[in-house]
Amino acid sequence: MKDPDFDNSRSLLQHIFANLQNVRPKLSTDHLYVEAEILDNINAAEATVAVTATYLVWKLTEHPEWQQKIRKELNALEVQENGLISFADVNSQVPSLEACLREVYRLHPALSGRSERLVPKGGRTLSNIYLPGGTIVTNSVAALHRDENIFPNPDHFLPERWLEGDEEMLNRRLNQLIPFGYGGRVCLGKALATMEIKLLIAGLYRKYKTVMTESSTHASMRQCSTHDAVPWGLQCVIECQLVDDDQQE
Ligand code: HEM
């Protein structure tokens, strides 16, 4: 049987070609352009997810009590016929994982460098400063994410800040959490990245616990750079130990 939605859907490559043919027919065979576009997407999707997943595993290893909370919530989920739990359930019924991931997005954004924007024609006044049209402006993700008025004890990994408190404060925190950028050029892979990371963590911590090794330390895990910001030590070495079914916390 044919699925009309699937038959009508296009791959990214088909979109690029269709767009080129409609808008810039002369460039329709410009392979360099297409290659650059594809490489751009691969690059945007690869290290960002790896860096975020690495720091989430590291933070959970440093804070085993959060591993236990996540595992407890995962174990309460229905197991499907294929032996797996569904992403819909992981996404909606594991609040501890959501809270830990948000804390990692806040403390260790994979990209915290420039996301430039151009001030529109006519200029704009921001915080009482007039910016002429055409000015390139940017923001500081680190300053927003470590604003102590919104995130008390900003340098500490405190997932509970996403699970407690009144709704107004939670919304202010969410509004100030922008690891994927903001506005018209916000990251296109935000939902995919979050799905990949949550499924990875769910798969790992349902069966295993992770413990520290001597090879990775607070110093070696310091984040460097603002673009695909990997740890200084260029690695995160932890040990995975199978959790015995009888010893499930
Ligand atoms: C945790 C993982 C990721 C993080 C932290 C991240 C972060 C970002 C940031 C900060 C931007 C710039 C947004 C802006 O200028 O406001 C961006 C853009 C982009 N990202 Fe991601 N990203 C991630 C994963 C992905 C994935 C998995 C894909 C694709 C499958 C992807 C595709 C893109 C694309 C295509 C853009 C350019 C959007 C545009 O300019 O219109 N990203 N990302």
TrEMBL record:
GO terms for molecular function: heme binding; iron ion binding; monooxygenase activity; oxidoreductase activity, acting on paired donors, with incorporation or reduction of molecular oxygen. PROSITE patterns: CYTOCHROME_P450 (PS00086). Pfam families: p450 (PF00067). Its cofactor is heme. InterPro entries: Cyt_P450, Cyt_P450_CS, Cyt_P450_E_grp-I, Cyt_P450_sf, Cytochrome_P450_monoxygenase. It comes from the Eukaryota. Heme binds at residue 187. Keywords: Heme, Iron, Metal-binding, Monooxygenase, Oxidoreductase. Belongs to the cytochrome P450 family. This is Cytochrome P450 monooxygenase andK. It comes from Trichoderma lentiforme.
